[in-house]
Design a protein that fits this description.
This protein is 32% helix and 17% strand.
């Protein structure tokens, strides 16, 4: 799903940059955090023992191998996708065709990563329960065990679909992915804003190899921040 909020947040960004004293970085008046190299790196925070096939809203980031700019470039705060970036976007939008339980909220393709929200419904679970189909549950002590219809399987098959369709000799994807279980409307609103305004924040994105460390645009910091800090 394309971002319906981009124009509004672009206007907010412009007002923010023009509303600060001369010589003051505009990011000082937004939700960009001081850079800490020990904290601001994309990491897996998979919850041990959690069933990622459960109904819920999940924020996902998948990155390219070695953070290479394979999907396009940001020009004047707008993302211009390459052919491979278009393929990645197309395959992402096709996820519900292959996983009937899955629906998509906002998403965006960036030069070396993709952000998106995946919603898993309980339809399949209800069908399985009615027909007495045994469900494969994660076993205690077994981490990252693939479960049919789970978030991990969806992301893995999305990556495979892009790789097959692109048919390139080089490796496209970083082996892992980042996820966050969205727990309330406040988190959902902040994550949607983060996704939709990503091109505006690209200069300070922790996934941008050209980032020089003046400030960090980090989703975990954003989610942890109090309202009056933003």
């Amino acid at each position: 799903m394309a971002c319906p909020y981009v124009r509004a947040y672009r206007a907010i960004s412009v007002r923010a940059r023009h509303g600060v004293p001369e010589g003051t970085p505009w990011y000082a008046h937004t939700n960009l955090m001081p850079y800490d190299p020990n904290k601001h790196h994309r990491r897996s925070i998979r919850v041990k023992g959690y069933d990622y096939s459960k109904p819920g809203w999940y924020y996902v980031t998948v990155c390219t191998n070695d953070r290479k700019f394979l999907f396009g470039e940001v020009v004047r705060e707008q993302m211009r996708t390459s052919k491979l970036g278009d393929i990645a976007g197309e395959c992402w939008n096709e996820i519900p065709k292959h996983f009937p339980r899955a629906a998509l909220d906002v998403s965006i393709v960036m030069p070396n990563h993709l952000h998106g929200i995946i919603i898993l419904s309980e339809d399949l679970l209800a069908v399985q329960a009615r027909h007495g189909v045994p469900r494969r549950e994660p076993r205690p002590g077994v981490f990252a065990q693939p479960v049919a219809g789970s978030l991990g399987v969806i992301v893995a098959q999305f990556k495979q679909a892009v790789t097959r369709r692109a048919n390139l000799p080089e490796r496209i994807w970083h082996r892992n992915y980042y996820e966050h279980i969205i727990s309330n409307d406040r988190e959902l609103d902040r994550i949607r804003e983060y996704i939709c305004t990503n091109p505006l924040r690209w200069r300070y994105d922790v996934e941008n190899p050209e980032f020089k460390g003046e400030a960090a645009d980090d989703i975990e910091e954003l989610l942890d921040a109090e309202d009056d800090e933003l």
